[in-house]
Amino acid sequence: MRKAFFYLGIFSPILFVILSGLAQRLTPNFNSIQSPASNLAAGQYGWLQNLAFIVGGVGFTLIGLSIFKNISKRTKVAPSLIVLFGVILILEAFFQSNPNQTDSATQIHIFLFMIGMVGMLISTFLLGNAIRSISSWMAWYCYLTGAVSAIGFIGIFATQGQTGLWQQVATGPLFLWLIII
Questions:
Q1: CA 16 – CA 99 distance, rounded (Å)
Q2: pLDDT at 171 over 90
C-alpha cells in the first residue's frame, strides 16, 4: 500500500503541471510570465486549475506520508511539512485567487501559499540534513532545490509584473525535487 501511495504521489506533480498547463493554453491572453497560475481559477477553465490543486495536493500529501513512514523519528518534521503543503494545495482550490487580489478568498489563497512555500523550503533543508550520511549528492540536491526555490519565492514579492515567472522558479524545482527524492 505504501508503494502505491508513493507512486501516486510521484505522478501528481506531473499531473498538476499538465492540468495547469492545459488551463493556461485554453485561456486566451493568459501570460504565465506576468500572472500566477492561481489566477486561472477565476476564469472559464478555472475548474482545470482547481483540479490541478486537488490532484497536486493529494499527491504531495501521499509523498509526505510515504517519506514520514520511511524516515527516522528525529526528522519527522520535513515530511510533515510536505503533507502540510499538500493540504494547503487542496485548500487553495476552495479559496480561489482573483486577479484583482482584493477579496478575502484571494488574500487567504496568498497566505496559504506563503505558509506552504515556507514549509516546503524548510523541508528541503531538513531532508538534506537527514540524508547527508546516506547520499551526499541527494543532500546537495535538496540544498540546491531549497536555495533556487527560495530565490523564486523572494522574487514573487520583490518584483512587479513577473509574478508568474517567479512563481514557476519557486515551485518548479520543488515539484521536480519530490519526483527525484
A1: 20
A2: yes
